[in-house]
Amino acid sequence: KKKKTKKKKTKKKKKKKKKKKKKKKTKKKKKKKQKKKKKKTKKKKKKKKKTKKKKNKSKKKKKKKKTKKKKKKKKMKEKKNQEDKKKKKKKKKKKKKKKKKR
């Protein structure tokens, strides 16, 4: 009988431990608050990344401008070549005509 009562006593001690757990819960809440703060710093980092992307965009725009210039130059060259060809053809025709007249 005496042994049995002792066991009961230990059970009561366990109940007390449960009460201690409740106190721990408040501590956990504090930890959560800290986590929220950390998230804020992460957001700031994301913003930095965005600025980097913008820089890249500006570089791309510059490249586009350059290619546009190159394309324009190419077109101009082609036009000139065509005009030159036409002129040459005209010259040839004139020469032929002269020969015929003789």
From TrEMBL:
One of its GO terms (cellular component) is nucleosome. GO terms for biological process: nucleosome assembly. InterPro entries: H1/H5. Residues 1-78, 86-102 have a biased composition (Basic residues). Residues 1-102 are annotated as: Disordered. GO terms for molecular function: DNA binding; structural constituent of chromatin. This is Uncharacterized protein.
